[in-house]
Fold:
Amino acid sequence: MARKHIILPLHIWNLEGLNVTERLVGSVIYGYSEHGKPCFMTNTGFSKLLHVSRRTASAAVNKLIDLGHVEALEGGSKRTLGWKQLHTRVEATAQEGGSQLLPVIQRLNTDSNTQTNKMNDEIKKNEKTPMHWQQVRDYFLHLMDREGSNHANHAEGWAKDFYTYYEARNWRTKHGAVDKWRPVAAAWYTRSAKNVPQRAVRKVDKEQLRRDYDWHERRYNNYIKRDREEQAAQEVAKMKHIEHMLNNA
Structure:
């Protein structure tokens, strides 16, 4: 069954030092662990699910492991991932005692609603505008991976130019305010890729090639008449090379 949504727990959303991609990767892993299952999703799987490049997904997983939130388990033929911290704030505070539990839950519910509204507002804002140019760069790298192009050395510069341009214009185009930044960024990426300087290609002079072919053919006939097979073979090789160039011109 296709995944319909990703649940982002508040205790993961509130972790310090993580970007949005890392929080989403952590949430997917947590979802498996919460149900007692290992997460078999590969970096490629995270990449496709979250619409980021494979290297960004890999970096997110490695950072979660380095910070101690996620553990990598080796088993069978695939790596599995597990969330190491399964206790929520409610579970932790439940140990305070039954008499104090109700006000604690009420306070946490209020905090939860506030955090949920804040999280929804931030997610909506993140759809309209990127948080930083690095997010644009990661999106450009995802586009490159999807189309199999090799403009990775340009991704950072394009992302900075895009972010700076629209930040200075308060994220508005000639048609109005930007509702979703990714389609605008995709158009920017396409234009930038088209403008990448291409290696100069020398035009083939077919007429000159035909004259060269005739010249080598005359030399070949002359060598054949004089029984000079080695030189004749050399002329044949040159004629075949010219034929190849003509066929691919």
